[in-house]
């Protein structure tokens, strides 16, 4: 069964990339002769043309995080592997794919600015203010939560912490070697990649080496907060590009090992039913809950922020946006399929959560090719941790961009970064009822993230209709589905809270505000579609 599911997904994604990717190239009229913002606005810090091999590493690592693992595994445990599998296939190709690629393309046509700028030009100032305020708050929450996740994973396994420190140091060397000393990317890769992978084996084999990296989760939180401040301010070529490029090989490795496990894992028994019913054992409805639980494995609003935030500022050629935006989404869908394969074997979520479930399944897959299962599990955990670290400092940089855009450039990058990390610190350290603020708000994050995706699709749909004078149904159909689904999920969440023994009023209020935001944005967009040309509030230079 695992073999059939993997081959079907692999072939399906190849066909989608060939034909639907070609459709996106045509509909957006991509032209490599047109200069990108990375060339026109080059500053060597944020705007920097990048080889596609390195840029796809950055983009893929940033959008992945733990999302294509946690969401699909959780959804499969609730409803069975088949609904989660089908949604990852359909969602990646026809929802997340055009959403991700479209966000990158829209950004490079708007000076490398965020989707908020697209909203400002084609929908209006009010819509832009609504959208950007919401995305800034969402990003700050993401920074806080991923700092916590990263701290937990580093504290749980010093081997992972040691290996992460090694590849961070090598990333700095890689950046200097490539951009300052002219060492070809291939040579740097050949020299450094074995060290990156060997670090995990070395730390696993010689425990004394990793002893200095033993810190508590609270200590790691402080270390990571300092790290993201520095990382988000450094030039992209020095740390962000090479680190993400190197970390992407962990993900490629995970895909290869996971693919081998699913292709040749006939010996594994499937312990998870294909379908467990329209409701989960704790009363969750498949619709809308499945579609807000599985985010990064199908569609995620965070992807639009990455694509229009950091990725678009590094794109060399317009047509490369399909490889990087659409291709990365399909590859992430494949990662989600492998994650579903891991829980099909285990039958349930392991103690420690979906990440541990994936790591254990990955260790079993490694055992098929002679790698010690314990080492394989550590390598699986390291792969996830690299994506968490990549996501957290990318999110910090994105928050800085968004704050600067929202202020019209009046806030400099240092103050914007301080606001981003300071806001995350509030979520992390300020408690209410004995719980960190982030954990109180987190239940609504899935809906918030998917609402961003719906609103990004809405902005792209308005842009395509008004600027290209073409049908925008390929964006508006998924937009309507995601918007209605998200609003339904928010309604379910509010209903559950109001009927709970102890009502979380923060979640109720925040959910209501999200629903109002979505409706207001929709009204603004519908009004903008009735007029021709850009919104009258502001003209682009």
Instruction: Give the SSE order as H and E letters.
Output: HHHHHHHHHHHHHHHHHHEEHHHH
Q: How do the strands of the widest beta sheet line up side by side?
A: 1-2
Largest sheet: 2 strands, antiparallel
Instruction: Tally the beta strands.
Output: 2
Q: How much strand content do the residues show? A: under 5%
Instruction: Compute the number of helices.
Output: 22
Please give the share of residues in helix. Answer: over 70%
Task: Tell me the layout of helices and strands.
Elements: H1 2-27, H2 37-40, H3 52-64, H4 67-79, H5 81-108, H6 115-122, H7 125-156, H8 158-179, H9 185-205, H10 207-210, H11 217-233, H12 240-263, H13 286-293, H14 301-307, H15 320-346, H16 354-367, H17 373-406, H18 413-429, E1 431-432, E2 435-436, H19 437-441, H20 445-468, H21 473-498, H22 505-529
Antiparallel strand pairs: 1-2
Helix pairs in contact: 1-5, 1-12, 1-15, 3-12, 3-15, 3-17, 4-5, 4-13, 4-15, 4-16, 5-14, 5-15, 5-20, 5-21, 6-7, 6-20, 7-8, 7-11, 7-17, 7-18, 7-20, 7-22, 8-9, 8-12, 8-17, 11-17, 11-18, 12-15, 12-16, 12-17, 13-21, 14-20, 15-16, 16-17, 17-18, 20-21, 20-22, 21-22
Task: Describe, in plain words, how this protein is organized in 3D.
It is built from 22 helices and two strands. The chain has 541 residues and is mostly helical. It has a two-stranded antiparallel sheet. A hairpin with a 2-residue loop joins strand 1 (431-432) and strand 2 (435-436). Helix 7 (125-156) runs antiparallel to helix 17 (373-406), helix 7 (125-156) packs across helix 22 (505-529) and helix 16 (354-367) packs across helix 17. The longest helix has 34 residues, at 373-406. The radius of gyration is 22 Å and the shape is globular. The termini are far apart. The model has no long low-confidence stretch (mean pLDDT 89).
